[in-house]
């Protein structure tokens, strides 16, 4: 007997695991608040603030060799060429793992984060080493953190982690990536420490919201019959 019933294709796995929605939402909101508060506090400034001086000396220009080479190598991955290589590699990996939504989030999440930091730089107007060098928030740090967040969300879904383990993984990976790129930016005197914090928080605010939006848009598309 022939079965004439039509089955529909299963939707791709969500890029934002349902177990993390309730946890990441307040974290994203708090991160957005930090971005706004720091931006308002340092709007129009052209020198380091009190918090910045807790971490670096006002006269420090850069780290010395061999750490300068490490900082420059890290900084490269936030430059257009290095960032493009990372995005292509991440998208390719997502597609090989059959996670198309994650591939979309790599591009949209990282792109939106960079666009947001760029816009905020012009709104806040904080500068370093001259009026042409807008510094708040750090786009390099925002990009590195955003990409790390997407990959951590992907790993959480692939491993089937629960709320606690998934949240720890996502935040730990974001912290490591943001700290590494942030250190390079401060070490090279490209940004103040508070710029780095602003870039990190921008990614924490943007990526979860973007992931939620990617899932909502994908879920509204009709499924193809098999």
Q: TL;DR?
A:
With 226 residues, the protein is an all-alpha fold.
**Unreliable residue runs:** none
Please report the distance between the alpha carbons of the first and last residues: 19 Å
Structural class call reads mainly alpha
**Percentage of residues in DSSP E strands:** under 5%
Summarize the topology:
Blueprint: H1 18-41, H2 50-55, H3 67-76, H4 80-96, H5 100-124, H6 139-159, H7 163-187, H8 193-219
Helix pairs in contact: 1-7, 1-8, 3-7, 4-5, 4-6, 5-6, 5-8, 6-7, 6-8, 7-8
Q: How would you describe the overall organization of this protein?
A:
The protein starts with 17 loop residues before the first helix and ends in a 7-residue tail after the last helix. It has helices spanning 18-41, 50-55, 67-76, 80-96, 100-124, 139-159, 163-187, 193-219. It has a domain at 33-43 and 78-219. It has eight helices and no strands. The longest helix is centred in the C-terminal third of the chain and has 27 residues, at 193-219. It is globular.
């Amino acid at each position: 007997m022939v079965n004439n019933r039509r089955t529909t294709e299963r939707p791709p796995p969500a890029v934002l695991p349902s177990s993390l929605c309730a946890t990441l939402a307040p974290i994203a909101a708090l991160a957005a608040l930090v971005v706004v508060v720091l931006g308002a506090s340092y709007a129009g400034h052209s020198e380091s603030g009190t918090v910045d001086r807790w971490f670096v000396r006002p006269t420090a220009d850069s780290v010395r060799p061999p750490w300068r080479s490490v900082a420059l190598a890290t900084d490269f991955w936030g430059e257009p060429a290095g960032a493009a290589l990372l995005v292509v590699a991440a998208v390719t990996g997502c597609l090989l793992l059959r996670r198309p939504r994650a591939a979309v989030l790599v591009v949209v999440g990282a792109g939106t984060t960079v666009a947001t930091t760029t816009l905020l730089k012009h709104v806040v107007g904080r500068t370093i080493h001259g009026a042409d060098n807008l510094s708040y928030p750090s786009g390099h740090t925002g990009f590195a953190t955003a990409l790390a967040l997407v990959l951590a969300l992907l790993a959480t879904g692939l491993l089937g982690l629960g709320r606690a383990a998934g949240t720890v993984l996502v935040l730990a990976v974001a912290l490591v990536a943001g700290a590494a790129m942030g250190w390079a930016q401060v070490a090279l005197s490209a940004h103040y420490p508070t710029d780095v914090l602003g870039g990190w928080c921008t990614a924490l605010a943007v990526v979860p919201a973007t992931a939620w939006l990617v899932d909502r848009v994908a879920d509204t598309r009709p499924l193809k019959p098999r």
